[in-house]
Amino acid sequence: MKHGITILIVFMYTLGFSIEKIPETPFTEYRFNAAECKLIQHHQSRIFIPPFAFFQDGKLYQGDVVLKYREFVDQLDLILNNIPMAYQENGKQHVLESAGMFEFLAYGNGKLLSFAPAKKAQVQLATAFNMTGGETFILNRQTNTWRKDTPFASLSESNREIGDDSNALWPENIWNDAVNNDEIFDSSGNTNVAMSSSNSNTLSFETLSNQAFKTLNVDKMEVYNCDKILTEETIPILADFNLQGFKQALHSPVYVVYKNRNAVLTYFPEQFKSDFKLIANEEFTILTFSMDGKIAVLDNAFAANFDAKNYRNKTVLFPLKVFAKAPNTKEELAKITGL
Question: Where a domain ends, among 179, 209, 229?
Answer without folding.
Answer: 229
